[in-house]
Specification:
By secondary structure, the protein is an all-alpha fold. It has 20 helices and no strands.
Length: 509
């Protein structure tokens, strides 16, 4: 019993929903800082306003992954989450550009990101569920293609509506321009239609079938070609001890921040450390009560029983997403101030620069869509690790070049490298990881893997504003230089990763 090979059109259908998801994600990335500044946010506060997005993903993705592993109904295993997440995301896209004050815009970003995570997390596991191993690289590359094309449309929408449909791209103080508002409305409709296409044109294997595929694959492999993933079985004492240590460390850090009067953003890091400790304490309580079927306990134990490949990829993801988040938060502020010499969100120069950033974001996503077709070829010619390292290096060069390009009209050159890095980040780690995960836990481990996307974003949101104010005079352009450095570190880290498919150690328990 083996999984059926899917045609290119079938893979297209199962990945098309990512086109819609990325419309929402792209509108958020390209315009959230613009909306915040329009509503009165200072440039040094942008990072902390973005913190809700990664914090939400930290909570939502493992929960959705856990439940999607155990769901089976009329819409299947993963598709119910596509369905309801798309509805919630579309609603948030309608609300955000109409937020009357800053705190409502920040809260809407929180809701929007939670909804995107509900939709997006099962899509990663969906490819692993449905495709045989030799088609997974194609499946994740197809996702990258749709992510790129969806983000091209989303990022360029305000510019298109301004220049093609003559909608206003400026507005009075405290109001979002018409071009941005209509872009969010259009994007909400496009997201809903694209995700529903995948929901109603695909089918899923049942959990029983997935288990049967896994059992047969394992039985066909000789013992020497197997890698064992340890069973999640951490003792209550170990959970409690570790939890208390982490919680105490967070409390001490918070006390030091208060005593020395450091920046308030650093409290987020202290809370993150303490929160991790408290989660272990709660899990220890469930363990002592014999709650072995408890989802919370299972996620915490699975976190400590991650496959070695997943731990190695965690470092790569950490640096990759730190660089990405620096770019998403600060590109608008950097380009408008450094290249357009404008910081007033009501000025024509600022809004022209902000529109151009949307075009630049569209450019790197367009490159990513093309790169999705090139990267599998590069991976076959070298290896998935070498290909990923090359692409991350290109991303670092792209960000590093931005301060050296004085003409904003030429910044599209920088976006070529960023586009290759983005496309590879969206496909290579998941293609490598899928071969190292037990089929029955594909969803929860993909959710846990999101920790290593979220934690660097939380760190970036916490420390980038502090670093800019302390060392760089509040100049946003230097956040992009720090992002370039993070990309280079990610590229170096790739070579420490073991790719199970390369060494033929695919079997797990």
């Amino acid at each position: 019993m083996t999984k059926s090979r899917l045609s290119l059109f079938q893979i297209w259908n199962m990945c098309f929903g990512f086109f819609g998801i990325q419309i929402g994600f792209g509108l958020q990335n390209a315009n959230a800082s613009r909306i915040f500044q329009t509503l009165g946010a200072d440039v040094n506060d942008l990072a902390i306003l973005w913190i809700a997005a990664p914090a939400t993903g930290l909570l939502v993705q493992p929960i959705i992954g856990y439940f999607s592993d155990k769901t089976w109904g009329r819409l299947g295993r993963r598709r119910p989450y596509f369905f309801w997440g798309a509805i919630l995301t579309s609603a948030a896209l309608l609300v955000m550009p109409n937020a009357p004050v800053l705190w409502i815009a920040a809260a809407t970003l929180w809701i929007m990101d939670a909804s995107i995570n509900i939709t997006m997390e099962p899509f990663r596991a969906f490819v692993g569920d449905q495709l045989p191993e030799d088609q997974r690289t194609t499946g994740y590359a197809m996702q990258s293609f749709f992510i790129g094309t969806g983000a091209v449309l989303a990022s360029a929408l305000p510019w298109i509506l301004t220049n093609g449909f003559h909608l206003a791209n400026t507005a009075p103080a405290g109001a979002v321009p018409d071009a941005v508002r209509i872009a969010f409305y259009t994007g909400g409709a496009g997201l809903l239609l694209a995700v529903m296409w995948t929901v109603f044109t695909t089918r899923e294997y049942s959990p029983e079938q997935v288990e049967a595929f896994e059992a047969q694959r394992l039985a066909a492999l000789p013992p020497e070609d197997r890698i064992v993933v340890p069973k999640a079985d951490r003792s209550a004492r170990a959970l409690l001890t570790g939890g208390l240590v982490w919680a105490l460390a967070g409390a001490v850090a918070a006390a030091l921040i208060f005593a020395v009067k450091l920046e308030k953003e650093l409290y987020v890091l202290a809370a993150l450390v303490a929160g991790f400790g408290l989660c272990q304490v709660v899990a220890a309580g469930f363990k002592r009560q014999g709650g072995t079927a408890n989802g919370f306990l299972e996620v915490i134990e699975d976190l400590f029983a991650m496959p070695a490949t997943m731990k190695q990829l965690a470092l790569v993801q950490f640096f990759s997403w730190f660089g990405l988040f620096a770019m998403w938060i600060y590109t608008t502020a950097a380009v408008t101030a450094f290249h357009y010499h404008a910081s007033d969100p009501t000025s024509a120069a600022y809004n022209a620069g902000a529109d151009w950033v949307g075009v630049l974001f569209a450019a790197y996503n367009g490159v990513a869509a093309i790169a999705a077709l090139i990267i599998p070829v590069l991976a076959r010619a070298t290896s998935r690790k070498t290909s990923h390292a090359i692409n991350l290096g290109l991303g670092g060069l792209g960000l590093l070049s931005i301060p050296f390009i004085k003409d904003p009209g030429l910044l599209w050159i920088s976006m070529i490298g960023v586009g290759f890095a983005w496309s590879s980040i969206l496909s290579a780690p998941y293609s490598i990881l899928a071969g190292a995960l037990p089929a029955r836990k594909m969803g929860v481990y993909m959710g846990i893997f999101n920790f290593f996307i979220v934690i660097p974003q939380l760190l970036a949101a916490t420390v980038l504003g502090v670093l800019l104010k302390t060392f760089f005079g509040g100049q946003a352009i230097y956040a992009l230089v720090l992002g370039a450095g993070a990309f280079f570190l990610a590229a170096i880290s790739v070579f420490a990763v073991t790719d199970p498919d390369e060494v033929k150690t695919l079997a797990r328990v």
